[in-house]
Each structure stands twice: as structure tokens, then as C-alpha cells.
């Protein structure tokens, strides 16, 4: 089993939902999504 943290991202305004590894990638995806759509992605660490 991998010890890499995983992050679940979901947009409350559109059907975007994804899982990424690393907090930096989650933050970047959230920033990119907001700049493109104006929507905020919520994300939290899952194990």
C-alpha cells in the first residue's frame, strides 16, 4: 500500500471531481479551476 497522501477535490458549482497526489498538486488544480471557471474547488486529504 502506498504511503503517498491523496487529496479529493470537488467543485460545488459544476460536476468537476478528482483525486490527486500531493497537496501542491491539489492547490494548483484548485487555482487553475478557479482562474478558468470562477468556481472554487474544495479539497481535503484522504488516506
From TrEMBL:
This is Uncharacterized protein. It comes from Halohasta litorea.
Amino acid at each position: 500500500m502506498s504511503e503517498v497522501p491523496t487529496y479529493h477535490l470537488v467543485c460545488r458549482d459544476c460536476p468537476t471531481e478528482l483525486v490527486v497526489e500531493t497537496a501542491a498538486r491539489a492547490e494548483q488544480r484548485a487555482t487553475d479551476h478557479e482562474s478558468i471557471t470562477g468556481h472554487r474547488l474544495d479539497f481535503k486529504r484522504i488516506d
